[in-house]
Amino acid sequence: MLKPETLLYPRPAGLYCPMGDFYVDPVRPVERALITHGHSDHARAGHAHVLATRETLDIMALRYGEDFAGSKQAVALGESLEVGGVSVRFHPAGHVLGSAQIALENRGLRIVVSGDYKRRPDLTCAAFEPVPCHVFITEATFGLPVFHHPDPAREIGRLLTSLTQFPERSHLVGAYALGKAQRVISLIRASGYDKPIYIHGALAKLCDYYVCEGIDLGDLRPATLEGRSGEHFKGAIILGPPSAFNDRWARRFHDPLAIFASGWMMVRQRAKQRGVELPLVISDHCDWPELQDTLRDVAPEQVWVTHGREEALVRWCELQGIAAKPLHLVGYEDEGD
Ligand SMILES: [Zn+2]
C-alpha cells in the first residue's frame, strides 16, 4: 500500500496532496483548495479554484464577496469525485452548517481530514459520520482530560434561570457569527423559549442564511435602539459577536448581564478576563471524551494531530496502540469556539 505521506503531507500553506496537486484548508492563497468549512481560519479568500460543499461556498461568498475565488465547484456530502487521479469524498463533520470531513483515496489507502468536528447533537447541521480510514487527521483544541463539556441544554437552562432571577436585566450573549450564534439560538428555541431574540447586525447575514437553509431560529429581531431607550431590552436575550462587548454597543442596554457561549468557558480564568458574569460552556469542538470516542469509532491505523493539545492526544493514542504524530500546523486559531 501507498505510504500515507505520498498522498498527503504538511507544507507551510497547509496539508498538501501532490498527486492531486491540491491543498486542504490552506492558510495562504493556492492554485487549488479543498475547504472543510466556512470558519475564517479554514476558509480563506484568494484561491484560484475552490472545491467545497454548496453551503461552505455560500458562506464564503457571504463573508468575502462573490469573487472570493477564481472558480468554485460545489460537492454534495457523500458524492465522490476525482481530483488529479485522487478520489475525493466529503462527509458531514457536525461542526457548522456545510462542514465536512474530506476523505482522500488512492491505491487502497484512505486518509480522512476531519477539519473541525463535534459529536454532540446540533440541529443546525448534519451529524458527524465516522468514516473508516487508515489515517485520521484530527484537531485537538480541547485535547486534555480536563476538558469535559457539559450538556448544552443544561447550559441554556442556566441562561433561562438567570432570566427569571434577573428579569430587569438585558441578557447579552456573546457568540461567534458562524455556527455558534445559530446553535445557541436553536438551543434556546429547543428549550421552549419563544419570545423575540435580538441580534447584533454582524450576525444578521449568517442567521438569515441559516433560516433560508431551513433551520428554524424563531422570531429574530435587530438589536437596534432606533429611538427606543435601552429599557426596551429589559429582560430580553440579545446576541452579539464577542468583539462587540468591548464597545459602546453593549453599554446602551439596560443593566446588561455579560454572557459568553464558548468551549473555553470551561476555563474560569478566561471568563474572568473577559468580564463574563455567566459563562456558558457550549462548544462546536470535541471535548476529551468525544475525541476518544471518535478515535474508537473510526479505528484508524494512524492518527495525525493538526493543532491544539497535540501531545496529550498523541500520547493517549500511543497508549491505545495507535500510531500517532503531531503535525504542528499553524494558522488554525478556531474562530468558531
Ligand atoms: Zn471551525
The percent of residues in helical segments reads: 10-25%
Q: What is the spatial order of strands in the main beta sheet?
A: 7-8-9-10-11-18-19
**CATH topology grouping of the largest domain:** Metallo-beta-lactamase, Chain A
How does CATH name the architecture of the largest domain? 4-Layer Sandwich
Spatial gap, N to C terminus? 38 Å
Secondary structure tally, helices? 9
Protein name: mRNA 3-end processing factor
InterPro entries: MBL, RibonucZ/Hydroxyglut_hydro, Xnuc_lig_assoc
Organism: Rhizobium paknamense
Give a short synopsis of this structure.
This protein has helices at residues 4-7, 54-64, 152-165, 180-190, 201-212, 248-251, 268-273, 288-298, 310-319, and strands at 9-11, 14-17, 22-24, 32-34, 47-52, 69-74, 80-83, 86-92, 100-106, 109-113, 135-140, 171-174, 197-199, 220-222, 237-240, 257-261, 278-280, 302-308, 323-326. The chain is α/β, with parallel strands linked by helices and 337 residues long. α3 crosses α4 (180-190).
Description:
The chain is α/β, with parallel strands linked by helices and 337 residues long. It has 2 domains: 4-146 and 285-326, Metallo-beta-lactamase, Chain A; 152-280, Rossmann fold (3-Layer(aba) Sandwich). Helices cover 25% and strands 26% of the residues. The chain contains 9 helices and 19 strands. It has helices at 4-7, 54-64, 152-165, 180-190, 201-212, 248-251, 268-273, 288-298, 310-319, and strands at residues 9-11, 14-17, 22-24, 32-34, 47-52, 69-74, 80-83, 86-92, 100-106, 109-113, 135-140, 171-174, 197-199, 220-222, 237-240, 257-261, 278-280, 302-308, 323-326. A 7-stranded mixed beta sheet has the order 7-8-9-10-11-18-19, with helices on one face. Helix 3 packs across helix 4. The longest helix has 14 residues, at 152-165. The mean pLDDT is 95. The structure holds zinc ion. Residues 37, 39, 42, 95, 116, 334, 336 line the site of zinc ion. This is mRNA 3-end processing factor. It comes from Rhizobium paknamense.
